[in-house]
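Troubleshooting log. The previous run stalled partway through. Resubmitting the same four chains, unchanged.
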Amino acid sequence: MKDLVIQKLKERGVSIEKVAEIVYELQSEYFPNLTFESCCEAVHVVLKKREVQYALLTGLALDTLAEEGILPEPLLGIVQNDEPLYGIDEVIALAITNVYGSIGLTSFGYLDKTKHGIIGELNDGKYEYVNTFADDLVAAVAAAACARIAHSSVGSVENED
Amino acid sequence: MKDLVIQKLKERGVSIEKVAEIVYELQSEYFPNLTFESCCEAVHVVLKKREVQYALLTGLALDTLAEEGILPEPLLGIVQNDEPLYGIDEVIALAITNVYGSIGLTSFGYLDKTKHGIIGELNDGKYEYVNTFADDLVAAVAAAACARIAHSSVGSVENED
Amino acid sequence: MKDLVIQKLKERGVSIEKVAEIVYELQSEYFPNLTFESCCEAVHVVLKKREVQYALLTGLALDTLAEEGILPEPLLGIVQNDEPLYGIDEVIALAITNVYGSIGLTSFGYLDKTKHGIIGELNDGKYEYVNTFADDLVAAVAAAACARIAHSSVGSVENED
Amino acid sequence: MKDLVIQKLKERGVSIEKVAEIVYELQSEYFPNLTFESCCEAVHVVLKKREVQYALLTGLALDTLAEEGILPEPLLGIVQNDEPLYGIDEVIALAITNVYGSIGLTSFGYLDKTKHGIIGELNDGKYEYVNTFADDLVAAVAAAACARIAHSSVGSVENED
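Second attempt completed without errors. Output:
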């Protein structure tokens, strides 16, 4: 299922590397020895988690069904217009962020607001794409990867079960 | 939008009264003066909340799209089979439960496990219906109504903003 | 830190075995081959998680400070009386439950309501103990262990990072 | 209880006005007619909520008990040093943020990272103060007030129950 999720992200222009760039940007100030490769690795580990995969499959399906005009109204209009009070995109993203505990929350909110890198590209969108869920979900994956790096940095193998 | 949500629930056999029955069953032991009417009223108030409406519209749409076979695989199979590790149904339900704070959490989990009344009917399902989201969402609405009754019981008008 | 947490639980009469009994009771109907030993193991794995340890240390400290009368009022009275609308005990417990994703939510709410085994003993309390946080935290540890067993049952080593 | 909470915030240098400044800074770009007075009003409404008051009382008590050296170790050191992996401060803050639904999450994370205004002052701390919980809690109050303004802006009286 992980390969499928990676492929669905790629269809929207989201590569592991683009997510890892955001992770590196956020975490390199705290961890001077951090490499871009370990950021890519952290994104991969996050994407292996089942709850993360389910959240991505669900949110990206909702975006796709909105693009195709298949969602029932009024949900269709709400998702197509990324209605600011909708909130269910953040709710599903939270399921990803929580995978490494609540410390991912701060990075998620920050990325969701500042729209760094690929998150901003998703949010600006080209005309034909709906990325109402995608931008939050990618921010959440990046935030979870940041949290994993923070946990790993203290050598906590005991936490990895 | 509230009327639409009530109608969509009704299409699955869920009436305000059936939800209120569960609320009454759970709360009457704590509040001996509780009436069935005030339980109906509490369910109505919960359904007026925008976040609750958005959560219901989203979850019920996913159930309907699963019934119609429109969701992309593997999500289609996961939702059709109410895969136990899926978890996104609980995540969306939590957005409803949180509307009156974390005290709704306990009732939600209890109802989601014991499948009281209409929740059990949804979960058992007739062949043609998918209620993967519906049963959790209805449990969450009932739990939020329970929480509202608990808050109201201490006369906290100050909390009602 | 895990040993310290286990010791602090033991001071309140909570052993790994008593928590594992609840886990076994809840999960054995779904997994007929489940052994009591694997339930003990699951509880151990949950207690190795840093976020779980931090939640336990914080909640149990609040209970102890309430017993000793050291918390400032009105918090002291609220915690001593396990005020039903307080809700912060559920909030901290949720940090534990989330460790294996949202599927732990249902078991947590169920256990928090039905007060199985040691959870009920904590809640009934002997006169001198305050277990406002302890009963929710133990329910959350049991719920997380249930979730871990459910995840493990599908052989998902990929999820274990 | 609201007055007590306001007083406890003031003891740490946090006034309604300082919180409202952050709210105004974040929301004025979206709502050009927003006044500083309505931001103060939104903060007041947030502070009237019981769950918010309970979260503030609990978190600020933990900060105070850490200042006084009364918390048991190792919790004392963790809270005194604002250990980055602790996470329970974010968990309690989330109970505040959720009061107006998940849309408050983004503002919370953003404020918790950028440490605007009074939040930064709390985080930098003078030597004798522990503000491990206080900075997150104030960010959460500001985020909830932002969410309330967003909800009010669409004239949703129906949502105010």
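Takeaways: Residues 20 and 46 of chain D are 11 Å apart (CA to CA). The two ends of chain D are 20 Å apart (CA to CA).
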